[in-house]
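Please review this one:
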Amino acid sequence: MGYSTSKNRRIGWLLVAMAGLLSLPLCVPPAHAQGNGGRGGTPPTPKAAAPIDLTGYWVSVITEEWRYRMVTPGPGDYLLIPMTLEAKSVADAWDPAKDEAAGNQCKSYGAAGVMRLPERLHVTWQDDTTLRMEIDAGTQTRLFHFGDWKAPDGDPTWQGNSLAQWERAGSLKVTTTHLRGAYLRKNGVPYSENTNLMEHYDLVHEHNGEIWLIVTTMVRDPRYLRLPYITAAQFKKEPDASRWDPTPCSSRW
């Protein structure tokens, strides 16, 4: 399969996933384990019931919106984001030096924005009900909790509280709330603590043996977004950890 055909196939997956997200209601998925284990049996753990294997190392492949994702766009460059007037006012005041002085270098590495950065992922099972995603950009860690997990009390965080469930189509659905206000784009485009983040994780197996992870994201924020902000990112599976390179958060690149 040629590169252009392969890329078109993956883009097709993105469009299908986006269309599905548009029809989803704004709600937190039921927090119960998936699967039934047979009549009278014990349901399998989320790890054992996984219809796809997301574990391993993945590298982002950025073929669209390059100018917003590979470099920090200039002040006022907000194309494609359905911002409210308040959001524009906040973004217009963006000052990376002030973020650094306040210790907020990680504002563009929160859950609603981090998957769009150039980066590598390392996905493992932390236990039978928790999928762990380490991100080398900004040295961030996301935890996807299955089943009857209850969020602990505390202040909002960059990565928030994520509830996960397997869907019948073989997709992982993750809903994240309790997020600390941060940036959708590195030039100060904000999202608030009221943000609801919904993601779908899907695998595509190419004829040449390559495995691709497609992450489709919907961000809903009643304060800073006029409409849901829907994006998709693609990651290619890597054979090992030889290129894994954790780096600190940065306000400037």
